[in-house]
Amino acid sequence: MMSVRPILVVAGVGNAAGTGAATARVFSKAGYRVALLARNADSLNNLASQLTKAGGEAHPFALSSYAPQAIRDAFASIRKQWPKEQGNEIRAALWNTAAAVWKPFLEVTDEEVKESLDVNVAAAFAFSREAILEFKNNDLNDLGKRGTLIFTGATASTRGNVTTSAFAVGKFGLRALSQSLAKEFGKENIHVNQAIIDGPILTDRQRARHDATWEADENVRLDPESIAKSYLYLANQDRSALTWELDLRPAHEKW
Ligand SMILES: NC(=O)c1ccc[n+]([C@@H]2O[C@H](COP(=O)([O-])OP(=O)(O)OC[C@H]3O[C@@H](n4cnc5c(N)ncnc54)[C@H](OP(=O)(O)O)[C@@H]3O)[C@@H](O)[C@H]2O)c1
C-alpha cells in the first residue's frame, strides 16, 4: 500500500495561538496530517491554510459544541475526508480542550459545575473512545505502537485550590481517565499520556493578564511550542520506556 502521512487529531484550538495550534504546527512539520477540531470555524480555517501553505496538510472540522455526539460526528467526517481504506491512519490524538471555571466555591453555579464535567470529562470520554477505536484498527508502527493519545492537564489536575473547585474536579477526572486508559490499553500498544502543565502558558489570554517583562522571560511562562515539542517526543517514545504522566513547568516556576 502507498505510504501516507499519519494523522494527528487535535481537539481544542482556541484562537490558534495556544497549545492546540502549536501542537498542530509541530506535528505537521514532523510529517503528520492534522485534523483540527474546535468551535471557532474561522480560526480553524486560518490555521488549516497556514499549515497547508507551510507544506503540511490540514483540515478543519468545526464543532457546534463539545457534546459527545458532535465529537463522534467530527471523527466520522475525518474518516470521510481521509478514508482508512486508502491507507489513512489516525496515529495520534490530543485532547487539549478545557472549560476553565475559576471562582470561589460559593459563587460557582450549577451550570458551571455541569459545564466543567461536560467539557473536561464527558467530552474527553467521547474523544478518547473515537481515538482508541481508530488506534485498535492500526497495525504496529515502527515504534511498535498503534497510536498515542495525549491529554493536556494543568496544576489543577493534582491540586485543588481556593478558586478551582469546579475546574479541578474536571481536571482530576481527566487525569483519572488518562491513567485508566493507559492501563487498559497499554497491552494493546496504545500509548496514553497526560501532561500536567504547571504554570501559565504564553497565550493571548495570559498576555492580557501580565506585562511585557513576563512575556519576554521564558523562565516564567511556558511556550506553547515547547509543550508541543514534548508532545511529539511522547509520540516518538520507544515502547520499552513510555511516559504516562509528564510534568512541565518553566525553569523559575515556584512549586
Ligand atoms: N493557558 C494556560 O495558562 C494554561 C495553564 C495550564 C494548563 N492549561 C491547559 O491548556 C489547555 C489549553 O491550551 P492553551 O491555554 O494553550 O489554549 P488553546 O490551545 O488556545 O486552547 C484553548 C481551549 O480552551 C477551550 N475553551 C475555552 N473555554 C471553553 C468552554 N467554556 N467550553 C469548551 N471549551 C473551552 C477552547 O475551545 P475551542 O478551541 O473550541 O475554542 C480551546 O480548546 C487546557 O487544557 C488548559 O487547561 C492552560
Automatic annotation (TrEMBL):
PANTHER family linked to this entry: OXIDOREDUCTASE, SHORT CHAIN DEHYDROGENASE/REDUCTASE FAMILY (AFU_ORTHOLOGUE AFUA_5G14000) (PTHR43431), OXIDOREDUCTASE, SHORT CHAIN DEHYDROGENASE_REDUCTASE FAMILY (AFU_ORTHOLOGUE AFUA_5G14000) (PTHR43431:SF7)
The protein's name in its UniProt record: NAD P-binding protein
InterPro entries reported for this sequence: NAD(P)-bd_dom_sf, SDR_fam
SUPFAM superfamilies: NAD(P)-binding Rossmann-fold domains
Chain coiled-coil ranges: none
Pfam families per the UniProt record, alphabetical: adh_short (PF00106)
Domain of life (superkingdom): Eukaryota
Organism ancestry: Eukaryota, Fungi, Dikarya, Basidiomycota, Agaricomycotina
